Fold:
Amino acid sequence: MEDKRTRGKNKYTLGALLKNTRRKKRISRKELSRGIMPERILIEIEENRCIVDKFTWDFLLSRIGVSTNIYECYVTEEEWKWYQLQIKLRNIANDCLRILYENNMLYSKCDNFYKKMEENNFIKIKNIVENGRKYLQEYKNSLQNDSNSEGLFKIIHILFLEVMEGYFLMAEGVEGSIRLERIEKVRALLEIEPFHQLKRKEKSTCISIFELELFILMADLYVDMGQYESAKEILVWICTYSYDYFKEEKEELVKIYPYAAWRLAKVEELANNNGEIVNICLQAMKLLVDTKSLRGMVPIMDVLLKYWNDEITLSICSKEKMKEQRGCIIEVFTEYKENPYGVYPLMDIKNATLVTEVIKQKREVFQMTQVRLSEGIMEPETLSRFENRK
Structure:
C-alpha cells in the first residue's frame, strides 16, 4: 500500500517518467528490460531505489521513445572516460562512411573490394580502422576493469562496441556472412526476436535507436550480398517503425529516419526500382527541414539531384538552388569540422557533468572550505583527492 507521506514526492523523477511513459504506451516491464536486466531491477529503477549509469538511462529512454536531452545527469569519472571513447569511436566510424560514400564504395561487393579503391584511400581507411580498433580495445579493457560497478549493464556497452565494429568491418570489405554472424550474436544477447517475427509484433515491441542502428547494419550487409529485397524489407520497417514510434520526439526521429531513408533510396536504385526513390527522399527532407537539422541532408540531396523532376521543383525549389544549398551545407560542416555523411551521434554529453566538478564548483560558490564540507564524513585530504579525480 502506498505511503501517504511519500505520495507525490517522486512525481518528477526519472523513475516516474520511465514508469508513467511505459504505462501510457502499454509497454510491459518484461519488454522494456528485455536483454538488459532482470525485471526486478527495472522495478527498483522505476521506484528510484537503484542507481544506473547515463548510458543505461539513455538506452531505456530511447526504448520508450523519449528524448535523451530532457535531463541533466551527473556522471562518474569512469562514465566520462567511456563517453570520450564513444565520441572517438563514433567519429572514426563516420570517417569510414565518408570515405566509402565519397568513393562510391558504400555498397560495393567484397570481391576485389580494395582493387576498386585508390591507393591513398586504401591506406587511409586501413589506418582509420586500425586506430578505431585501439580505442575499441581500450573501451573493452575499461569495461572489464569496472564490471562490478553499481548500475552498470554491460550488454548496452557491448551493443555500442559491436555497432562500431560493424562499421569497421564494412570499411574493410569483410564479406556479409561474417558480419551477419556477429550481428545475430548481438541480437540474441539483447533477446531481440528475428526480424521476420519482429515485423508481426511491432505494436508490442519497444526498440531503441541504438538497436535500430544495428538493423541498418544488417540491411547494409544484405545489400553487399546482393539480397536487395531483404535489405529493403528491413529499411522499410525501420522507417515505418521509427516514424510512428518517435513521432512525438522529433529530436530522436531525426537521429535515425533520414539515415534509413537514404539507405532505402540507394537500395531501390540498386534494385532498379526507381519509382519510389524521390518520394522516400522528399519525406526525409521534409523532416530535416521541420527539425532544422542538417544531419544526413547532403546524401539525401545527392539522390534528389540525381533523380530531379518536376515534382521536386514544385515541392522544394529549383535544381540550381538545391545545388547552391548543398554547397553551403558542405561549407558549414567543413567550418565546424563535422562529417556531413556521418551517422548522428547517438549520445550527448551536453546534459552530463562530471560529478567531481559539480562538488568542487558548488563548494566554491558557497565559499566552503574542504575542511568544512568534509567534516564528520571524511578526511579533507580524501575530499581533495576526489575533487582532483584521484
Summary: The beta strands are 73-75, 352-354. The radius of gyration is 23 Å. DSSP finds 19 helices and two strands in the chain.
